[in-house]
């Protein structure tokens, strides 16, 4: 092992090979529920160094766990407990290589923090629309590895849809330069989409070409109260009919979500003096003018009130008010964490079936685990729900968490009955690797295994994840 680590130091410099207690922050997952072990954390500064390290790991048969900001929620970016692997941190590879405002593209390295990519686009008078709660610490490489979603998928798509080209170090330590800023390239297999969403199990993404967009002339935010998810779906259809592509965000949250925020963050003001069963936070991004955006939003709110799809609504009149409304949504996971241990589910179902899914699954969970509290929120516009379950108010959190597999089974079986997916935007990692076998066909699993075997025959790329 000493010879191997010395060879790593020769490639990246001794200061960028961490061992012992210096590795601590890289070995524990974001939710601090699991800590793995590693030979070392190695921090390359270039694609060439990544390739050299991978070739070295192939020679010594050392597994490689790629890591960006380590903000994942499914144990995809931390090593197992064997101590056999190295963690390959891409944090030093954080350069914005190029911005092309005519082609509306930006070439960035995988270690760039998402917020830095957003800011670089804004500095060029453009918009990079991917937006996540962890955008101040997650990296674009991790976003691509998990095909992250966020709040603007409804208008702009997942990270996959925002990427035109990749640079990848293969499992053999070769560099595939696919950094082409082309919207059309029909020349064979789509290798780019093979690596996106693969969670580092097929190769290591080191850079990418991203789409950027003109900055909208106006962004308006509204918060609406309603009786049920079905009314929220009707409001979604109405808003899409009246506003088209201007609708960029449409978030659903239950009253219990807001009550948790109010309980643990009392400084945050709720938008209404009374409670309602459900709420929607919607955002319009208009390319024409603020006046035009206001007209669109006012017309939608008025019609929704007339049709009794909503019971009340507030429209942000300033950037500060808009941020305050978005903060309510973004503080839901933080409030649930303050409330105590909980069981998270990142699921998707066809948008038209979300109301039925919530109703049916709520009943099933309550029947199996009386008193369980559902913290249901998410990106209604693209069918992605965070269907989280908290223990009964006066129950034992540890006793409740002991039933995690049973609760997962209730929720995931319900997702499957509704034609959905048990992972919408977080990936599979190690946490859901075995669970997915219940819901994918043997044909699909066999195809995935064939790809893995072909591209990584020695199983050194993030082993134990996805498949």
UniProtKB/TrEMBL annotation:
Keyword Membrane tagged: no
Q: What is the lineage of its organism?
A: Bacteria, Pseudomonadati, Pseudomonadota, Betaproteobacteria, Burkholderiales
Q: Which family does it belong to?
A: Belongs to the FAD-binding oxidoreductase/transferase type 4 family.
Q: Which segments constitute the FAD-binding PCMH-type domain?
A: 34-215
PROSITE patterns documented for this protein: FAD_PCMH
Q: Which UniProt keywords apply?
A: FAD, Flavoprotein
InterPro entries, A to Z:
FAD-bd_oxidored_4_C, FAD-bd_PCMH, FAD-bd_PCMH-like_sf, FAD-bd_PCMH_sub1, FAD-bd_PCMH_sub2, FAD-linked_Oxase-like_C, FAD-oxidored/transferase_4, Oxid_FAD_bind_N
Could you tell me which PANTHER family the record lists for this protein?
A: BLL6224 PROTEIN, D-2-HYDROXYGLUTARATE DEHYDROGENASE, MITOCHONDRIAL
| Stated name of the protein | D-2-hydroxyacid dehydrogenase
State the superkingdom: Bacteria
> Does Oxidoreductase appear among the keywords?
no
SUPFAM superfamilies attached to this UniProt entry:
FAD-binding/transporter-associated domain-like, FAD-linked oxidases, C-terminal domain
